[in-house]
Structures are given as structure tokens and as C-alpha cells.
């Protein structure tokens, strides 16, 4: 018997010898908490929770201690707790730690699990069945067992303790409030992990595990689930999207004697592609386009760092673009994680002479199409250096190009040319060049629309896999040399 706040007495069902009653009550509590049964800020009495879900006081206290560990609740005095919205940054940081844990575990577990993956296959089949039945509780249980088995197979107790400390078993379940769409795709990403471990391929398994965890986090960002984590994450991402949009130049940009149009569409809510226009001294204009490695929030942060570094260098008086990009490279290198880098094309254009000086640091070569006597000529502004952020002392060379009236300049990121159809074939640079050659009398806006239409028709409904950016400029009369 327990005494409630109103003085009445109610009985609490005790667990059976095998703990089934407590286990079922705990599962029901988790399901309703993650589905939004309790509002953020709501105070709950743990004794009432114990009665409702047929738990004893020790079990309900343990449950809320774990909810507190993942940011779903905060224990307070008088045997009560306050429901909370999970901290998005903490959740994402935890998944980044998980990606590292599982990468390490995959390398070492391959020796132990080679030819011995029956348990993993059984858990994978359990995940598939659970998704078909719409049973997220069973899915989360099998998923956690799958990954714990790999951690155990690594025979590294430290990795397992970190997993338990960060409560990943619970985080997996907390991610969903209702059955999301297309979760089976995430489930099937376990299969190549099993295959690699079964063959003893530790390096391959490690990379697959890291990719799986990162893919799972990206999936959560896109999911329409109504769990507290998703609600907080969506608010966070919407805010991040607004902040990132402020980094891009205004749409009503006017460069003398250039008709400019741009297009940007990230693969996720926020992305790592980058373009910019800078008004410089003596009537010159800086033009930049870049592509940061990776996707999502990490790539967006590096994109912001790249833009800040470039603006800090370019807006100061300078003569040598090679030295300027060298300085940008050092700033990005010193402020970024080792596995992040960015391709960058940066040019300075002088309308009075129509001369563009540029440095191409590992970026897709921009294309210049020049009409010529009913035909056309194509020029590529090729890369002459590696992407920025790889080596702090990298060197870059500067080139120049003389434009003529009627030339069309097109810069792009590989989300355009690497768009795939259902057969896995990429749209490719040759198709882009052929299309541009047929657009000799089109405006910059019309060229962008035609490129996007062609890419969309080619992909035939396939999902966008990478950020897509286009910068199109048409050289016009009026600024005579």
C-alpha cells in the first residue's frame, strides 16, 4: 500500500518472480512519456506514477533517473519529477560519441565475431519483424541488443561502460513517439555491418557502424515523429536554418554589367554548400562558391567558419589571391576538426576590364560558355590546388580569365552533377555542358531553371543526396574595356 497526497490508500501491484509486471509497466511508462503523454514543465508525483504503471518505488525512481540522464525529466524533492524537453545539443553530442564508440568496437570485434554472427542476424530479423508490426518497443530492444553485442564482441569494457553511462538503450527508444515512415531503410543498413563482421573485415565494419549512427541521426532530423526529442530538434533546426540563411548574400544583388542569379537547396534542413559576393575596393567584386565535407549541422558550422575567414581576409587590402587563400586555409585548418575540409573557388572580378582573377582550391571547375559565330566555345576554370583545411601550409596558385560580352559563367557544387537516377547513373558534367551550350540566348534565371528541370527529370523522383548550389552570371554590355 502507498499513501497518496489526498490521504487515500491504493495498492501497487508487485512484480512477479520473473519481473514481468515491472517490465511491462516500465515499457508502458516509456511509451507514453516519449509519445508526449506528459507536457514539458509538468510536475509528476512518482508515487502516483508507480500506482498507475504498477511499479514499485525503487523501479519508478530508477526509471526517472534514467529519463533524467537523457534530458526527459528532472528529479526534484518530495519524490517528484518535472518533465523536460531533451537538450538537442546534448543529444547530438551523445550520438557523435556513440559513432566513435561503435567505430572502435567494430574494428576489434571483427576478430571475435568472424563466422559467429548468428546473434546479430537474430536481432536484425527481430528489428525487421518489429517494424512490419509497427512495434517500436520491440524494435528499440532488438536494435540496442544488436549494438551491445558488437560492443561486447570488442571485449573492451570501457566502451561498454560509456554506452551504459550515456543510456543509449533508452535514447534509441526516446527517439520515436510514433512509428515513423521508411524506418525499414535504417534497419536494412545493419545488414552490411553483419556481413563485414562475419568476414572479419574490421575496418569495413568500423566505417559502416559510424555511417549507420550518423545516418540514424540524420534520419531522426527528417522524421515526422512527435517525440519530445523531435519537437526540440525541429525547433533547433528551424532556428539553425534561419541563422544559416542570414549568411547568404541578399537576393537583390547588383553587380555592374553582370546579370547574376543563384540557387541553393540543402539535402537536409541545413547544409554545407556556400556561396558569397563581396563588394571590394576600386569597384572589384569577390565571388565565392564552396562545398564543405559532410552534411548537416557540422558542415554548416564549418561553412560559417569558411565564410568568416574568407571575408576577414578579402575585405582587407591585398594584392595576391594566392596569399589570401593561403591565409583562409590556415584559419580553417586551425579552427576545424581533422576530418573536415572544403573545396573553394574564389575570384575577384573587375567590371571595367572584364578580367577575373581566381584561385580554385579543389572545387568543381566553373564553366564559361562563349557564343561564337553560331557555335560556342567552352572554358573550364580548373582547380590548381587541394581543398582548404587539409594541410595548414598548403600553397595555392592564381589564374586569370578575360571575359567578353555575352559570356555565361556557371559555378556549381557536385550536388548538381552527381544527382543520380534509379540505375545509379550520375547526371554528370557532359550533360551540364551540353545543356549550357543550348542556352546561348537564355537569361541567368532561365538557365538555372533549365538545369534544375533537367536534373529533376533525370533523377525521376530519386531523393536528393547532396546539397545543390548554382551561381550563373551573364556578362552584359555597358562597362566597356
Question: What this model shows, in words?
Answer:
The termini are far apart. Helix 4 crosses helix 6, helix 4 runs antiparallel to helix 11 (202-222) and helix 6 (136-153) packs antiparallel against helix 8. This protein folds into three domains: 12-83, Orthogonal Bundle (Arc Repressor Mutant, subunit A), CATH 1.10.10.10; 88-237, Four Helix Bundle (Hemerythrin (Met), subunit A), CATH 1.20.120.530; 255-475, PPM-type phosphatase domain (Phosphatase 2c, domain 1, 4-Layer Sandwich), CATH 3.60.40. The chain has helices spanning 20-34, 46-52, 57-69, 88-113, 118-132, 136-153, 157-165, 168-174, 183-188, 191-198, 202-222, 228-245, 296-314, 321-335, 414-417, 429-437, 444-459; strands at residues 2-3, 9-10, 43-45, 73-76, 80-83, 258-265, 273-279, 285-292, 342-350, 355-361, 367-372, 375-380, 399-402, 408-412, 468-475. Mean pLDDT is 80; it is low at 1-19. The strands form four sheets. Strands 6-15-14-11-12 form a five-stranded antiparallel β-sheet. It has a five-stranded antiparallel β-sheet with strand order 7-8-9-10-13, covered by helices on one side. The protein has a three-stranded antiparallel β-sheet with strand order 3-5-4. It is of the alpha+beta class and 481 residues long. Strand 9 and strand 10 (355-361) form a beta hairpin.
Rg, Cα atoms, Å: 28 Å
Physical arrangement of strands within the biggest beta sheet = 6-15-14-11-12
Overall SS class = alpha+beta
CATH topology-level name of the largest domain: Phosphatase 2c, domain 1
Could you say what the CATH architecture of the largest domain is? Answer: 4-Layer Sandwich
Helix content: 40-55%
User: Could you give a short account of the major beta sheet?
Assistant: 5 strands, antiparallel
How many β-strands, per DSSP?
A: 15
Number of domains: 3
How does the overall form come out from the CA principal axes?
elongated
Low-confidence stretches: 1-19
Fourth-tier CATH superfamily name of the largest domain: PPM-type phosphatase domain
Cα(first) to Cα(last) distance is: 94 Å
Average per-residue pLDDT, rounded, comes to 80
Percent range for β-strand residues: 15-25%
Amino acid at each position: 500500500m502507498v499513501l497518496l497526497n489526498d490521504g487515500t490508500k491504493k495498492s501497487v501491484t508487485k512484480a512477479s518472480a520473473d519481473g514481468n509486471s515491472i517490465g511491462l509497466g516500465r515499457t508502458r511508462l516509456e511509451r507514453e512519456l516519449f509519445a508526449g503523454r506528459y507536457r514539458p514543465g509538468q510536475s509528476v508525483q512518482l508515487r502516483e506514477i508507480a500506482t498507475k504503471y504498477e511499479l514499485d518505488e525503487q523501479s519508478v525512481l530508477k526509471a526517472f533517473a534514467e529519463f533524467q540522464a537523457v534530458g526527459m525529466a528532472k528529479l526534484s524533492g518530495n519524490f517528484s519529477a518535472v518533465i523536460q524537453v531533451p537538450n538537442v545539443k546534448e543529444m547530438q553530442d551523445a550520438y557523435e560519441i556513440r559513432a566513435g564508440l561503435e567505430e572502435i568496437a567494430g574494428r576489434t570485434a571483427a576478430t571475435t565475431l568472424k563466422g559467429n554472427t548468428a546473434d546479430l542476424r537474430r536481432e536484425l530479423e527481430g528489428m525487421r519483424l518489429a517494424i512490419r508490426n509497427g512495434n517500436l518497443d520491440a524494435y528499440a530492444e532488438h536494435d540496442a541488443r544488436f549494438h551491445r553485442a558488437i560492443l561486447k564482441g570488442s571485449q573492451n569494457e570501457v566502451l561498454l561502460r560509456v554506452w551504459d553511462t550515456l543510456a543509449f538503450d533508452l535514447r534509441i527508444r526516446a527517439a520515436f513517439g510514433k512509428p515513423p515512415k521508411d524506418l525499414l531503410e535504417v534497419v536494412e543498413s545493419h545488414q552490411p555491418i553483419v556481413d563485414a563482421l562475419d568476414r572479419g573485415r574490421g575496418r569495413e565494419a568500423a566505417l559502416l557502424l559510424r555511417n549507420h549512427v550518423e545516418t540514424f541521426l540524420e534520419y531522426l532530423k527528417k522524421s515526422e515523429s512527435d517525440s519530445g526529442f523531435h519537437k526540440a530538434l525541429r525547433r533547433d533546426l528551424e532556428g539553425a536554418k534561419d541563422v544559416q540563411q542570414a549568411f547568404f548574400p541578399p537576393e537583390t544583388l547588383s553587380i555592374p554589367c553582370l546579370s547574376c542569379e543563384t540557387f541553393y537547396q540543402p539535402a537536409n534542413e541545413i547544409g554545407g554548400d556556400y556561396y558569397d559576393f563581396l563588394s571590394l575596393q576600386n569597384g572589384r567584386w569577390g565571388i565565392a562558391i564552396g562545398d564543405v565535407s559532410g552534411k548537416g549541422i557540422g558542415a554548416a558550422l564549418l561553412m560559417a567558419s569558411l565564410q568568416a575567414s574568407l571575408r576577414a581576409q578579402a575585405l582587407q587590402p591585398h594584392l595576391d589571391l594566392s596569399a589570401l587563400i593561403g591565409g583562409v586555409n590556415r584559419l580553417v585548418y586551425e579552427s576545424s576538426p581533422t576530418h573536415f575540409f572544403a573545396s573553394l573557388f574564389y575570384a575577384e572580378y573587375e567590371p571595367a576590364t572584364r578580367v577575373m582573377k581566381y584561385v580554385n582550391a579543389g572545387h568543381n571547375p566553373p564553366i564559361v560558355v562563349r557564343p561564337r559565330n553560331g557555335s560556342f566555345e567552352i572554358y573550364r576554370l580548373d582547380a590548381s590546388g587541394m581543398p582548404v583545411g587539409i594541410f595548414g601550409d598548403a600553397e595555392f596558385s592564381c589564374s586569370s580569365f578575360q571575359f567578353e560580352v555575352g559570356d555565361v559563367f556557371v559555378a556549381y557544387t557536385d550536388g548538381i552533377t552527381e544527382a543520380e537516377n534509379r540505375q545509379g547513373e550520375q547526371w554528370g558534367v557532359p550533360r551540364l555542358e551540353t545543356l549550357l551550350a543550348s542556352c546561348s540566348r537564355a537569361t541567368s534565371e532561365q538557365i538555372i531553371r533549365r538545369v534544375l528541370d533537367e536534373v529533376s527529370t533525370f533523377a525521376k523522383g530519386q531523393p536528393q543526396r547532396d546539397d545543390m548550389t548554382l551561381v550563373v552570371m551573364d556578362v552584359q554590355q555597358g562597362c566597356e574595356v
